[in-house]
Design brief:
- 27% of the residues lie in helices and 20% in strands.
- With 198 residues, the protein is α+β, with helices and mostly antiparallel strands.
- The chain has two domains: 114 residues, 2-Layer Sandwich (NE0471 N-terminal domain-like), CATH 3.30.2020.40; 47 residues, no CATH class.
- A three-stranded antiparallel β-sheet has the order 1-2-3. It has a three-stranded antiparallel β-sheet with strand order 4-5-6. It has a two-stranded antiparallel sheet with strand order 7-9.
- Strand 4 and strand 5 form a beta hairpin.
- The protein starts with 15 loop residues before the first strand and ends in a 6-residue tail after the last helix.
């Protein structure tokens, strides 16, 4: 056969365990420890939804997708991992904007931005704060479990596996935050931006 060779790439997918929607970010925690955060602007329906509409979501598709019934929005793990934005056409989005608003928003009012939402039932109106606390503790554990590496002979420690200087051979390692040496500036920046892969 002549021509271009192609390869099929299969992404390892993990199930959704929690979802957080703020005024500017959609963050999804996966069962394998990854957190995917994307700008909410990638999904205009989420951007234009009220906090109560954003709060009313369901994990669907055997755990590989999220559905917002009030916004008629579906987002899959694969699309998030591939960085796919909404492909909704402008005419379709305009029709959606003109839809009658759901009564859910008027029932619950405006929730504080940045809150992790989980409604037990539309009737209850209870925002589950314990899920937010669990998420914070999980992140703290992940940070505490980070592996620190430095090249032999170097004083700079790295902890983000996606750092361009991440040691892959001939390195020293530590399971706790090192008390001596420098911390990598690139790792610090990635950690602060929530882009650090540990």
């Amino acid at each position: 056969m002549n021509g271009t060779h192609s390869a099929v790439v299969t992404l390892p997918l993990a199930r959704v365990i929690s979802v957080m929607v703020t005024d500017d970010t959609l963050s999804v925690d996966l069962e394998d420890g990854r957190t995917i955060s994307v700008p909410i602007g990638w999904y205009p329906r989420l951007t234009h939804g009220t906090p109560a509409e954003r709060a009313n979501f369901q994990i669907t598709g055997a755990g590989y997708a999220i559905h917002w019934p009030d916004l008629d929005e579906d987002i899959g793990v694969e699309g998030l991992l591939l960085g796919r934005k909404s492909t909704e056409s402008p005419p379709s989005f305009e029709r959606w904007l003109k839809r009658p608003r759901n009564l859910l928003a008027s029932q619950f009012g405006q929730a504080p931005s940045g809150m992790l939402y989980s409604l037990s039932t539309p009737e209850s109106g209870i925002l589950d704060e314990t899920k937010r606390e669990k998420r914070e503790k999980k992140r703290e554990r992940r940070t505490a479990m980070a592996e620190y590496r430095k090249h032999k002979g170097s004083d700079t420690w790295h902890w983000c596996r996606n750092c361009s200087h991440w040691p892959t051979s001939n390195y020293d390692t530590s399971q706790t935050k090192p008390s001596s040496g420098e911390l990598c500036n690139q790792c610090k920046a990635k950690d602060a931006a929530g882009e650090c892969k540990k």
